[in-house]
Every structure is written in C-alpha cells, then in structure tokens.
Design a protein that fits this description.
The complex is a heterodimer. By secondary structure, chain A is mainly α. Chain A is 71% helix and 0% strand. By secondary structure, chain B is an all-alpha fold. In chain B, α7 packs across α9. The longest helix of chain B has 40 residues. Classes of the chains: A mainly alpha, B mainly alpha. At the A-B interface, α2, α5, α6, α7 and α8 of A face α1, α4, α5, α7 and α9 of B.
C-alpha cells in the first residue's frame, strides 16, 4: 500500500480496515492464549474431578470438585488402605528435591573455578575443553545410560541418590560452566586489574570481585540448573528404582496394565509442574539464554 | 631474589587454570569414561542375560542393524518427524514472534504465559496431552474438535493418529522456545534498513521478505539447529504416550536403542544403535552450523 493510495481512500474505508485489523489481532491473541493455557486449565479441572466425572461423555465443565485425587497422592502407597499399584508420590517429590539440589550444588562447586579458568586464562587445552563441554549437548542420553546402568549395577550406585546426582552432572555441569563463563566474561577486565594492583591474588579476584558481582548470574544458573534436573526423565527412568524415582518417573506410574488413574495422574502432573511454573516466572528473562547455553542473550 | 619470585609466581600462574579446572575435569572424566566404555561395547556381543557369550565382534552389531527391517523404518520416522517438527515449529514460531513483535495489548502477559509449557518436564507435557486426548470418546480434545467438524480421532491407537499426537505434543512444548528466540532476534534488529525500505516505498510483505527474514536468518538457523538436534533424539514424549507404537509407527532410533538395551538387554546392539544416532545428530548439526556461520557472516 503506497502513500498515495491511502490519500485517495475514503475515511470510512480506513476505519473499517482498522476494525478488521483489530478483530484479527484479538482473535489471534485469544487463539494463542487458549493454545498455551487450556491444557493447564483442563488438567487442573481433571485433577479436581471424581472418576465418574472424568469419564463422562461429553466431558463436563461443571461438576462438584473434590480433593480426593490430591489426598490419594499425599497418602501414598504405604500410608492407608489403597491398592498396591499406587505410587508413593510424596517420596518421589522428596527424591526430586534431593537429587536436583545435590546435582546443582556439585555442579556449581566444581563449575565456578572451572568457569573462571575458562573465562580469564589462556592455556593450551582451553578451546578443546570448551568444545568437549558443548559436545555433551549432542549425545543421545541412551549412549550414556547404557554404560552407566552397567557401571552403577557393578559399583552399587544403581537406585541411589548419589548415583543419580553423579549421572545428572551430564545435564548440569556443561550447562553450569558455559553459563557461568558467559556471566564472568561480562565483568569488565578493568575492575579485576584494579583489584590485582591493590594486591589481590587471582583467588582474591575470584572471591572478592567476580563472585560478588556475578551473584545474580550465579542465582540464575542455579535456578535453571535445578529446573533442568527437575525435568529429567530418561536418566532416572533407567538408573533409579522405586525408592529413588523422581516426580517425572513417578507420574507415569499411574498408568498400569489394568487401568489409568486419570484423576491422580492429573493431580501428579500439577504437583510435578508447580515448582517449574513458579521458578520460570522468577528467571523469565534468562530462560532463552539458559536453554541455548548462553548462545542467545 | 626477585627473579626467582617472579618465576615461581609465573609457574604458579601457569598451573593455576588446571588447578581451578581439576574438580570439573574429574567429573568430566566420569562422563567420558562411560561413553568410551559404551563405544567399546558397541563392538561386542554384550547381552546381559548371556554374559558368557561376550566377545569382540567388530562391526557385526552395526551390520545387523542395517539389515534389520525396523531400522530403515525407524530411520525414516526419525528424519521425517524431525523435518515435520522443525518446519511446523519454526514456521508457527516465526508467525507468533512477528505477532508479538507488533505492539499487541497484553504482550508481556502472553510472553510470560508462553514460558509455562517451555519449562515443565516434557514427560509431564506428554501426560497432560494424554489425558486430553484420552480415549476416543471421553477425551476433551475430540470433544472440542467436534465443534469444528472434525470426526473423533483415535489418537494413540492408529498409526497416523499416533504420529500426529507426538507432533502436537512436541510442538506445544517447544513452540515457545522458537517464538521467544525469534522475538528476541526481531527486537535486536537495526532500524535503519526498515526506514530505508519504507522510503523506497516497500509494502509490509516486501519488508518481511527482503528486510526482516534476511536480517533474522542467523536466529532462524540457530533455532533450526537446536530444534533439529532435539527432534532427532526425542524420547520422553514418545515413551510416555505411544512407546513407539502402534505397530512401530512412532519408533525412532532412540526408542529402538532403548528397546534393544532395556527390553531385550542386548547392550552391544543398543549401544551400536546409540552411536548411529549420535553420528546422525553430529553430521546434521555440523551442516547446520556451517550454515549458521555463513548466515551470521553475511548479516554482520
């Protein structure tokens, strides 16, 4: 549409055009929101339904809500008169917390000095090492999990929190080092040189300059690392047992040969997703950066 | 005196990066070692139930894989699924990014809500959709589709239904990733080319075709790279919904490797399958990375 054409248009045509445009934008926004949010709404509704309401045809939007599904989740397997197929969800939730926190702590403790070395020093193997860290992003998990399964069986790490924390280093360690390195590199060199002139050692620069200045970056890395661990499914599927399952593996236990416990599975997905929903709003500015390992800021 | 001090200081400084790296290197060795062990197993007849049959068989696992009829089907599904997923997700993601880039009321809220599917566990995403797809009669999705005249779909029971289901679920989880990266790219674009194009009298379609897309190309190639790598290896969603079925219609190379190793405990064959998948990911990623370098050079 050229400028001249607009000049010759009647005013009503312009306002009509604008209305059509606004309606189209409104419709698109509603479609986008429905596509994004409806699954959450529906799962929340399902989690509040009794078995009869869940299977009603057509699906019911109006029903008497019940917290039975959540109550059954909290009761778990050992507590109460429930059938033996019921997963012990409180235990799985605690397992997820233990493994995720453990994996992140280990990665950050090992990752801070490593990221500092990669950000500030030049040494022969530097580029090779950075590439090695990145290359873990390419490997299908099954290539790690087959040998890890065999090794874990042999050394008593199978079905233990410690073993899973070690396996999760595949998820968190390369990520932590790359993210921290990109945050450390953002701190101006002059600040560090000034600290060295004032008599700080390299270690002093790390503890007195880099760490305090990159606290927000470290916090973001910790939260994102925790979220990636919380999302992990395939490593614990093969390397954990009933005592160490996290929520992701726990949630599929509601599907058995005889039946699917839809209501409890819905409640379980809500509980498993909840920490992620809260945390992702906390770090929303950094999620893209985290998912691309610092490639997009 | 001062020379020895500087020399000692100098030597310490040369060792320092390795000292700093030591804890991470120990952990990294713990990751590389299992991988190399697995690589070795891929050349052996390792079968967990028959430990005494263990021997080095050179390329036998790889050859028998290629002769396996399911392998060709799984390879075809892996590549076909990746192509479909990447085209759909990048196409829709670009549309969503352009939409959000225009000044839409409530953009911040939409953007924040789009993070939710992105960050919940993929297996949980799969279970949520499994509940919505449900059985053919009671699922909410078929009920909603009936209003737009779509006959009830047998989501996980039919081959086409299963493939479409996995595509829908994967797209729901990953569309926000594509959209947010492309939106970030759009917001970082320089304004001068747009002003120049407007002065030249270009319409919105021309601007999109000749200004926006070329400038955005490094970002587009980047999301294609990330999405391709992850789609080639998709596992969680398929495992939680169809487990490769029905009739192996949604069995990709990753699921097939899982079946070899953890259903039949043929660790050697499973590992060979994993290595084939890794090679596929590496080759395709390498080609895309070369494209990315070229795209960023041409726009820089």
């Amino acid at each position: 549409m050229t400028a001249q054409a607009v000049l010759y248009q009647a005013p009503q045509a312009v306002s009509y055009r604008r209305t059509v445009r606004q309606v189209a934008i409104g419709v698109a926004a509603v479609v986008l929101l429905a596509w994004t949010c409806f699954p959450f709404v529906w799962i929340l509704l399902t989690s509040l339904k009794s078995p009869g309401d869940i299977l009603s045809v057509p699906p019911s939007f109006v029903f008497t809500p019940t917290i039975d599904n959540y109550a059954a989740l909290v009761m778990g397997e050992q507590r109460g008169q429930y059938s033996s197929t019921r997963p012990d969800f409180p235990l799985f939730f605690v397992n997820s917390l233990i493994i995720s926190v453990g994996a992140v702590v280990l990665s950050v403790v090992a990752g801070i000095p490593a990221a500092y070395a990669l950000a500030r020093f030049t040494f022969p193997a530097k580029n090779g090492l950075a590439f090695l860290l990145m290359s873990f992003r390419f490997v299908p998990f099954i290539a790690f999990v087959i040998p890890l399964y065999l090794l874990f069986q042999k050394f008593g790490l199978y079905n233990t929190h410690g073993g899973l924390i070690l396996a999760y280093q595949l998820i968190t360690l390369p990520f932590t080092i790359w993210m921290l390195r990109s945050f450390f590199q953002e701190i101006p060199l002059e600040t560090q040189e000034a600290a060295m002139i004032d008599g700080c050692s390299w270690l002093g620069v790390l503890t007195r300059v880099i760490l305090p200045l990159s606290m927000p970056g470290i916090a973001v890395t910790v939260i994102l690392g925790f979220m990636f661990c919380w999302n992990a499914f395939n490593y614990p599927l093969m390397l954990a047992g009933r005592q160490t399952f996290p929520v992701t593996v726990g949630a599929i236990q509601f599907i058995s040969y005889e039946q699917v416990l839809w209501g409890q599975m819905a409640a379980a997905t809500i509980v498993a997703a909840l920490p992620q929903l809260v945390l992702s709003l906390m770090v929303q500015k950094y999620i893209v950066r985290g998912l691309t390992m610092g490639a997009v800021k | 005196m001062s020379t020895t001090r500087t020399r000692r200081h100098w030597r310490r400084e040369r060792l320092l990066p390795y000292l700093l790296l030591a804890p991470a290197l120990v952990l990294l060795a713990g990751m590389v070692y299992p991988f190399l062990l697995g690589l070795y197993y891929s050349f052996t007849s390792y079968w967990l139930q028959y430990p005494n049959r263990f021997r080095f068989v050179w390329l036998d696992n790889y050859i028998s894989l290629i002769e396996e009829p399911l392998f060709a089907r799984a390879l075809e599904f892996t590549l076909g699924f990746t192509l479909a997923a990447v085209v759909i997700q990048v196409g829709l993601g670009l549309a969503v990014a352009l939409f959000l880039h225009a000044r839409i009321p409530g953009r911040a809220a939409i953007r924040a809500l789009m993070l939710l599917p992105l960050m919940i566990p993929p297996v949980i995403t799969a279970l949520m959709w499994k509940i919505m797809m449900g059985s053919t009669n009671a699922g909410i999705l078929n009920y909603l589709l009936s209003f737009v005249g779509v006959d009830p779909v047998n989501w996980f029971g039919s081959t086409q239904g299963a493939i479409v289901s996995v595509l829908i679920i994967d797209t729901w989880g990953n569309l926000p990733f594509v959209s947010l990266i492309l939106l970030g790219g759009l917001q970082a674009l320089p304004t001068e080319p747009y002003e120049a194009a407007r002065v030249d009298g270009a319409g919105p379609i021309d601007i999109l075709r000749y200004v926006t897309l070329p400038l955005l190309s490094p970002f587009i190639v980047l999301v294609v790279l990330f999405r391709t790598m992850d789609s080639l290896r998709i596992f969680d969603v398929i495992y939680a919904t169809t487990l490769g079925g029905p009739n192996d219609a949604t069995t990709n190379l990753h699921i097939m490797a899982y079946q070899y190793s953890f259903q039949w405990y043929q660790m050697g064959k499973g590992m060979a399958q994993a290595i084939v998948l890794l090679l596929l990911v590496v080759i395709i990623s390498y080609l895309l990375m070369r494209l990315w370098n070229r795209a960023s050079e041409s726009t820089a």
